Amino acid sequence: MDLKKFEYWFIVGSQDLYGDETLRQVAQHARIMTDDFNKDPQLPGAVVLKPTAITPAGIRSLFEEAAACSACAGIITWMHTFSPSKMWIQGLAVNRKPLLHLHTQFNRDIPWASIDMDFMNLNQSAHGDREHGYIHARMNLPRKIAAGFWQDSELRRRIGVWMRAAAAKHDGMNKVVLRLGDNMREVAVTEGDKVEAQMKFGWQVNTWGIGELAARYAKISDAQAEKLAEEYGVSYELASGLKQAGKARSAMLEQAKIEIALKEMFETENAGAFTTTFQDLHGLPQLPGLAAQRLMEQGYGFGAEGDWKQSMLTRSAKVMAEGLPGGVSFMEDYTYHFETGNEAALGAHMLEICPSIAEGKPRIEVYPLGIGGKADPARMVFNAAPGQAVLATLIDLGSRFRMIVNEIETIKITNDMPRLPVARALWKPYPNLYDAAECWILCGGTHHSVYTTALTSEYFRDWAEMCGVEFVLIDKNTNVNRLKDELKWSGAYYGRI
Length: 497
Hints:
By secondary structure, the chain is α/β, with parallel strands linked by helices. 38% of the residues lie in helices and 22% in strands.
């Protein structure tokens, strides 16, 4: 993914009462800032400076142009001088892009010896941004406020987080979740309102029969599969039975064919994410395992058992994490370790964990699955790299969507698990295993989630707020009783809008 293809329009506010010289300096300062922003690797997108906003008609026109621009993923506003906020009402009313209110000023320091009223009139964002912030609050507009000196690294970091979240939001407006079959039968958390999801997130969540994939799979040649297998041999370790012809290698080649067929479908349907279920595999020899892992590694979202919500959330996290150290994967909670003082949770899945989170080089192996009634599938086996991470899940409460994020610390797996040939991660959730589990369950958190070592909770909060989705954070400071009250307050809030 090339995040530089996303534009972030920089709209600087002023007014025409100050005269041409002041407006010239405003434009000059804005140009210097824009050029410097575009040199900073912390800002993944292209900052595009727009004409200084000084009239209601001009402001409305800028927002209308942004709405019509397919490259524009978000708008950054900053009031260099005082810009009466009634001028902004019509423009903000038609805005359809994520909004960042940048609160800064061109000069870092007050020029104590030379400061006069001319300087004050020009450099008064402490004045102008409060006027601008009022109209956002008055109109109840979702936005991120980033305050600080425009050259400071921490401020740039926060802008970069917002840009990545906006890029993920923009990506979802143009993508499809390709559901192969329906949800796993009788499972509740994988269900949801797909119409509401498209209204909130932009994603088209549609179904394709597994027969369409099976038909494509049947047309993939052995030569195509062997060529892809050569790539497997370079990128991963191969179990001994996979290096020569035989039953095990044939199983790996079947996954290669499934991967090629899936990729063809994605490109045809403009899909950014997909789901499978082991209850609907007619025409396929195996449940897509290695194929799903490979496609996640390439940036596609995935959800097991038909879980389209986590599938599109995985893709959104992949977009946000592009170019950052660490990885993103679909994840499932499996079992606990209750040893006093060393409590931890083990996450894994039958097959489909992304190798971007691996510690070391993943190994391709073939083992029975024990569910689904199909042939033994090939999969990558590895342990997740230790470090700070987060789990995020998206649930449908009927009246609204809720995002739940738990900050965790992934720890090194020091014990061998020779009879569990799957990818896995072991973590300590904050504030501790017992309170984190209670809070997660209290919020309605699912057993499926997005696991990432590349992103922090700030990314998911920004994305959730852009989408108008309730956000709940479980971290070191979380108290179970306090969270119970906060969920009641949140329910009252979302019940009125």
